[in-house]
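pinned: reference chain
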Amino acid sequence: MINTKLFFRSLLLLFFCFAIGNAQGILTLENAIKIALENNYEIKIADNNLKMDKTNVAIGNAGMLTSISANASDNKSVQNTSQTRLDGTTVELKNAQNNNLNYGVGLDWTIFDGLKMFARFDQLKELQNLSDAQLKKTIVNTVSSVNSVYYDLIQEQQKLEDLDSTIVISKKRLEFTKNRYTIGKGSKLDVLNAQVDLNTDLGNLLKEKQIYANAKTLLNKILARDLKSDFIVSKNITVDRKLQLSELLALAEKQNPELIIQIINKKVSELDLKQIKADRYPVVQVNTGYNFNESTSSLGFNTQSSARGLNYGFTASLNLFDGNAQNRNEKIAKMQVENSKLVIEQQTINLQSNLTVAFQIYLTNLDLIDLEENNTAISKQNLDITAEKFKIGTITSVEFRAAQLNYINSKIRLSTAQFQAKLSEITLRELAGNLQF
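pinned: its C-alpha cells
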C-alpha cells in the first residue's frame, strides 16, 4: 500500500477540492434544466410562435364573421359651365361650384363558400397544435443538450480528480527516486524519467482543465446566462439499466416530437385540399347598408338634392372555367397529402431504426461499464503491489509508471464508459419522447 504520508496528502487534496466546491456552489441537473426552461432563447422564440398561432385561432380570421365598414366622401368642383337647353337658350356661369357628399355604413357577410371557412378554422387550430408540438420538440432538444453537457462535465470533473491523483503519485515517485539517487541506490536516469513523467501529468492536467472550462462555458450558453458563471456539478453518473426496447418503441410511436409534427403536417395538408375543393362551389354573400347623399350645384335643373336610406341585396358567384387551374390545384394538393403520408412512414421507419441502433449501443456501453469496473479494481490492486515492490527496489521506475498509467487509464475509461452509457440512455429517452424535465 502507498505510505501514510501519501494518504494524508491525498486526503488534504480532497478536502481542498471540497472547500472549493462549496465556494463555487453545486449546480444540480434539476436546477440546470429549470434555468434552461426559463432562459433558453430557442424556447422563448418557440413559445412566442405558439402564442401568435393561438391568437390566429379565431372565427373572424377564418372568414366566418361579417365585415362592417364606414365610408365617407366629399367631392367639390369649381368650373366654368355652359348649358344649352331644349328651347335653344344658353346659360353660362363662371366659377360654378358643385358639391357631392356621401357617407354611410355597409355590411358584407359570406354565408356560403363551399365550407371553405370551416376548413380554414380547423386548419388554424391544427397550426396551433403544430406550434405546440414544435415548442415541445425545442424543449426536449434543449433538455437533452443540458443533460449531455451536464454529464460530460461530470466525466471531465472525474478526469480532473483522476489526474490530480496521478500527479500526487508521480510527485511521490519523483521524491522517492531522488532519495534513492542521493544515497547511491538509484540512477540519475530514474530521476529524469520520473521528472518527465510528472511534467507530462501536469501538462495533461492543464489540458483537461481547459476542456472542463470549455464545457462549463457551453452549459452556461445553453442556460442563457453569464458565460463566466462558476459552478461545479454532481460527482456521480447513474445509468438506468432497466430500459426495454419494446417499451421504447411503443412510447416513440405516441410521443416522439418529430413524428407528432409530421402527423399534424398531414392534417394541415388535408385541410388545404378541403379549401381548394371548396372553390368548386358557389360563393354567396349578403350585403346591406345605410347611406346618406347630399349634392349641390350652382347651375342646372336641380341646384340641391339629398337622399338617405337602406340598401340590401346578395351576390352569388360560381367559377365556370379558370383554365383548368382548379384541377391542377387539386392534383397538387392531393400529392402534398400523399407526400405527408410518405414522410410519416419514413419517419416511423427511421425512428424504429434509430431506437434499435441506440439500444444496441446502450447495451454495449452497459457491458463496458462492468468490464471497466473490473479492470479498475484489478489495476488498483496491481498498483498497490507495484508500489510496495518499488519502495523496496525490486522493480524499476518504468515498471511502476506502467502500473500507474494502467490504473489511471482504467479509471478514465470507466468514466468514459459511464458517460457514453448515459448518453445512450438520454438518446433513447429523447427518441421515445419521455425525457424528464
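why pinned: Strands lie at 67-84, 90-112, 283-297, 304-317. DSSP finds nine helices and four strands in the chain.
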